[in-house]
Design goal:
- About 45% of the residues lie in helices and about 15% in strands.
- The protein has 9 helices and 6 strands.
- Strands 1-3-2-4-6-5 form a 6-stranded mixed sheet, with helices on both faces.
- A hairpin with a 2-residue loop joins strand 5 (about 145-150) and strand 6 (about 155-160).
- The relative contact order is 0.17.
- The chain binds iron/sulfur cluster.
Length: about 190
């Protein structure tokens, strides 16, 4: 196991034992994230949903199927990337994450990113976007290629809508597809 994989396993263990907010009480499993520890691209969503909570894996329900289709269109598979969420336990009934939960949980995300040291982050939905760009609106900055210095990492961040929004709304699906074309071109994949 690589050094990065070992360090990520340690963070997973901490997440599995975490009781810092109330969400662990109603969740079935913790969902730390999954993928390639050496990935140059990390996708960050909002929080586990029903299927993710059942399986302990990120993006395994319908949103995950759409994510896989969008990845395939730009020549990527899950094994190429790392996928995780802002929150590591499912909020009851898929309600929005609360500000205190985000504040309490995101040190785990920060630790994961500092281990993986990706070059590119794709934020899926407004909660992940707001973690890097507080106060911004996703409808305004989605699809933009943003370069930031963040905790000693030089990151390119491309915010896009959450796949679940694309499943609900045809216009948002079209926007997601367009923004994934931007991602593919930026990565030199298409
Ligand atoms: S959601 Fe995050 S902070 Fe809350 S219990 Fe789970 S791991 Fe801990």
């Amino acid at each position: 196991m690589s050094a990065k994989a070992q360090k990520l396993k340690y963070i997973e263990k901490l997440i599995s034992q975490c009781q810092k907010c109330q969400l662990y009480k109603t969740a079935t499993n913790h969902v730390p994230g999954f993928g390639n520890p050496e990935a140059e691209i990390v996708f960050i969503g909002e929080a586990p949903g029903y299927h993710e909570d059942q399986q302990g894996l990120p993006f395994v329900g319908n949103s995950g199927k759409l994510l896989d289709k969008l990845l395939a269109k730009i020549g990527l598979v899950r094994q190429d990337v790392f996928v995780c969420n802002i929150l590591k336990h499912r909020p009851p009934n898929n309600r929005d994450p609360q500000p205190l939960e985000i504040k309490t949980c995101t040190p785990f995300l920060k630790a994961q990113l500092q281990i993986i040291r990706p070059k590119v982050i794709i934020t899926l939905g407004r909660f992940a976007m707001n973690y890097f760009f507080p106060g911004e609106y996703i409808s305004k900055i989605k699809g933009q290629i943003k370069k930031i210095d963040w905790n000693k990492l030089k990151l390119t961040i491309i915010p896009v809508y959450h796949p679940s929004a694309g499943l609900r709304n045809g216009a948002m699906l079209q926007a997601l597809e367009q923004d994934f074309q931007t991602i593919g071109k930026f990565l030199g994949k298409i």
